[in-house]
């Protein structure tokens, strides 16, 4: 039954070995002259300064960059306010009536908010924050679902100089508590509830549990989403209603003029140890990177585009490419609260049709789910408004890339595969859609002004084609300024492996055309008989087989080879797990990549352990495959998946 699908993907792959931006796209592109790269390289500080100049400064900087590795000061002496970039200057320019957000709740409730309305609401929230005693430099922890009020809360904090820290509203009470305690937040802002797959989730309960042992928290502000349908857990005397403190306030609030290097936010991300790292971003440089990359990578034309980034604001992608980048550019965007498969698996495509979305940014894991759900869902909708597609978060396998181009992009939309990290603040490696002839699976080249190199184990540089550790070798404005109160870990994690160079923790290869292929985290790279193999490469090969919907591969300890690849596979509908199919898949990989890459065994499973942001937790799969005690599972979307997986692994062994 899926033969035709497999053939289609094969045909698409052979038709799209490269993709050249169509003439009509190039003709209207924000940049189409490749000399932008040389010019930016020739004077990279001047290049970034030219972007900073497009922001509205209260006071201009004295120096573009002071670089005392690994500590950077960008635009020192300059003063500005982040919320002004995103709001006031658009209203002042006469664009106050432009829609900032088209919000769609999962149950179908919808509202549109203009830039003037958002500015007014942000000022009210900012005044409310002040009334609760929040001052410049205080930390505010935020635990909210995907609603405009979340974006507005970030902007309101930045307006008064409070440092915000969003915790994805899917994290457990313990994770939330750890983050609140680490930053000693004075205030927590949360929602009572949110909708997910037709059910109301009680967020307030999580917050109540989290703040029990957080003496720094003076108040908890509760925004009401659930209305009557949520049974509120008993509130404490610290609780205050959003409607009381954030709405009944003056419509104006003077923005605080911040130093370029004043902190804007802390965002926690997982590291190699159990303790999350509090990534610190500051104001002027971060805004510069967000403004420039949004405009060039997404070819954004704020006066006519409708942009939709499906990430949650709880992750860096939402910070930079929902709140600060698009809003600094004055974009109109869609914010959707719920699941992509509710009420049906075509919800995203229905939204694109409804709002005439032109720029769409999502993750490979979502794209693979869409592929699995079937081509008929996007086919039901008019997606002709789309003119550019983006991908972020993990390497995108060529099969998913060509499916995305064909079934979503109508074969005509350039795809920007964007590599970056919470730490980098903005996109670092990416095509420019009006310039780059792309190759499915490659994030192509560094953004203008950015320098990326591949480094060998011994610290020497990889010259020409080859593989190595990905490092950024010049400072850039939106780089992290450190880890919250932990300079030692900052220096050790990023700057000690290859002194003077930013070590990204990813492996990558460079092809003959100088294109970069990010292969994944270094800990996902295995060494089989002295050969470096990417788990991703083997996974890509497995999903190229017609029977496979999704695959995860880990390198497990092996007596002779050092490490051996072990696969976990979700089959497409219509295929049955069998020892014959296992042999067939192993042989298939052997044929595609080489005998070395052939998995020693493959376990069929209905589900894979994933984080809430959709990343496969390979560390846990390795534990299963090595028969070890399972490590920390608190970041899993569904911890019960592992039990079933362990049972299958033993049964099929
Ligand atoms: C991975 C998300 C390949 C990479 C913005 C990186 C990618 C980590 C890509 C950062 C991409 C992100 N191709 N890999 N286009 N984008 N990654 O901090 O391993 O959540 O180090 O930031 O995701 O994840 P983070």
Offer a few descriptive terms.
653 residues; alpha/beta; binds 5'-O-[(S)-ethoxy(hydroxy)phosphoryl]adenosine; Rossmann fold; five-stranded parallel beta sheet; 23% strand; 21 helices; GMP Synthetase, Chain A, domain 3; seven-stranded mixed beta sheet
Explain the overall architecture.
This protein is α/β, with parallel strands linked by helices and 653 residues long. Among the domains are: 109-256, Rossmann fold, CATH 3.40.50; 529-652, GMP Synthetase, Chain A, domain 3 (2-Layer Sandwich), CATH 3.30.300. 33% of the residues lie in helices and 23% in strands. It is built from 21 helices and 30 strands. It has a seven-stranded mixed sheet with strand order 5-4-17-16-18-19-20, sandwiched between helices. The chain has a five-stranded parallel sheet with strand order 7-6-8-11-12, with helices on both faces. Strand 1 (63-68) and strand 2 form a beta hairpin. The protein is globular, with a radius of gyration of 24 Å. Bound molecules: 5'-O-[(S)-ethoxy(hydroxy)phosphoryl]adenosine (WTA).
SSE blueprint:
Layout: H1 3-15, H2 23-28, H3 35-42, H4 44-52, E1 63-68, E2 71-76, E3 79-80, H5 82-95, E4 99-104, E5 110-114, H6 115-131, E6 139-143, H7 148-160, E7 163-166, H8 173-183, E8 187-191, E9 193-196, E10 199-202, H9 203-211, E11 219-223, E12 239-241, H10 242-245, E13 258-259, E14 263-269, E15 277-282, H11 284-297, E16 306-309, H12 316-328, E17 332-336, H13 347-355, E18 359-362, H14 364-373, H15 376-379, E19 388-392, H16 398-408, E20 415-418, E21 452-455, E22 466-472, E23 482-483, H17 487-495, E24 502-510, E25 516-521, E26 525-528, E27 531-534, H18 535-543, E28 548-558, E29 562-571, H19 579-592, E30 601-604, H20 618-625, H21 641-652
Parallel strand pairs: 4-17, 6-7, 6-8, 8-11, 11-12, 16-17, 16-18, 18-19, 19-20, 29-30
Antiparallel strand pairs: 1-2, 3-13, 4-5, 9-10, 14-15, 15-23, 21-22, 22-24, 24-25, 26-27, 28-29
The chain binds 5'-O-[(S)-ethoxy(hydroxy)phosphoryl]adenosine (WTA).
């Amino acid at each position: 039954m899926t033969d035709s699908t497999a053939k289609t993907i094969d045909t698409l792959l052979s038709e799209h070995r490269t993709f050249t931006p169509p003439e009509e796209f190039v003709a209207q592109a924000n940049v189409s002259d490749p000399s932008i790269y040389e010019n930016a390289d020739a004077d990279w500080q001047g290049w970034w300064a030219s972007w900073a100049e497009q922001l509205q400064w209260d006071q201009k900087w004295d120096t573009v960059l002071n670089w005392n590795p690994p500590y950077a000061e960008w635009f020192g002496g300059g003063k500005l306010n982040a919320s002004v970039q995103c709001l006031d200057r658009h209203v002042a320019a006469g664009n106050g009536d432009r829609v900032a957000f088209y919000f769609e709740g999962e149950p179908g409730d919808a509202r549109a908010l203009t830039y003037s309305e958002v500015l007014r609401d942000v000022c009210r929230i900012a005044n409310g924050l002040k009334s609760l005693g929040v001052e410049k430099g205080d930390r505010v922890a935020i635990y909210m679902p995907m609603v405009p009020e979340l974006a507005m809360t970030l902007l309101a904090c930045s307006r008064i100089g409070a440092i915000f820290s969003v915790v994805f509203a899917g994290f457990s009470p313990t994770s939330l508590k750890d983050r609140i305690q680490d930053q000693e937040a004075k205030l927590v802002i949360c929602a009572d509830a949110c909708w997910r797959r037709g059910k109301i989730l009680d967020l307030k309960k999580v917050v109540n549990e989290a703040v029990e042992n957080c003496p720094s928290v003076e108040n908890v502000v509760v925004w009401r989403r659930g209305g009557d349908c949520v049974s509120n857990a008993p509130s404490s005397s610290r609780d205050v209603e959003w409607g009381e403190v954030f709405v009944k306030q003056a419509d104006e609030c003077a923005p605080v003029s911040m130093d370029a290097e004043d902190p804007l936010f802390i965002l926690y991300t997982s590291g190699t140890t159990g303790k999350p790292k509090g990534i610190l971003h500051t104001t002027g440089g971060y805004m510069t990177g967000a403004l420039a990359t949004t405009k060039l990578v997404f070819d954004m034309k704020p006066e006519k585009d409708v942009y939709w980034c499906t990430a949650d604001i709880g992750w860096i992608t939402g910070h930079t490419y929902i709140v600060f980048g698009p809003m600094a550019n004055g974009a109109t965007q869609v914010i959707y609260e719920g699941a992509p498969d509710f009420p049906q698996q075509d919800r995203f495509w229905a939204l694109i049709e409804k709002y005439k979305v032109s720029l769409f940014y999502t993750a490979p894991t979502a794209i693979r789910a869409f592929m699995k759900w079937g081509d008929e869902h996007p086919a039901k909708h008019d997606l002709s408004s789309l003119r550019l597609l983006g991908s972020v978060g993990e390497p995108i396998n060529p099969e998913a890339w060509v499916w995305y181009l064909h079934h979503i992009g109508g074969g005509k939309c350039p795809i920007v595969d964007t590599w970056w990290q919470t730490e980098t603040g903005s996109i670092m490696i990416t095509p420019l859609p009006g310039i780059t002839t792309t190759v499915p699976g490659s994030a192509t080249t560094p953004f203008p002004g950015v320098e990326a190199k591949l480094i060998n184990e011994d610290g020497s540089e990889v010259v020409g084609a080859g593989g190595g550790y990905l490092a950024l070798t010049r400072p850039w404005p939106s780089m992290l300024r450190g880890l919250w109160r932990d300079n030692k870990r900052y220096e050790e994690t990023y700057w000690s492996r290859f002194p003077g160079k930013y070590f990204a923790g990813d492996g990558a290869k460079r092809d003959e055309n100088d294109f970069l292929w990010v292969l994944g985290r270094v800990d996902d790279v295995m060494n089989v008989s002295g050969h470096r193999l990417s788990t991703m490469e083997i996974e890509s090969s497995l999903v190229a087989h017609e029977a496979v919907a999704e695959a995860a591969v880990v390198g497990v300890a092996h007596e002779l080879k050092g490490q051996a690849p072990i696969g976990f596979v979700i089959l497409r509908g219509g295929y049955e797990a069998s020892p014959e199919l296992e042999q067939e898949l192993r042989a298939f990989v052997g044929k595609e990549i080489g005998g070395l890459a052939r998995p020693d065994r493959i376990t069929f499973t209905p589900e894979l352990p994933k984080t809430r942001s959709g990343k496969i937790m390979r560390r846990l799969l390795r534990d299963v495959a090595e028969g070890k005690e399972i490590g920390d599972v608190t970041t899993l979307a569904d911890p019960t998946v592992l039990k079933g997986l362990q049972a299958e692994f033993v049964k099929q062994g």
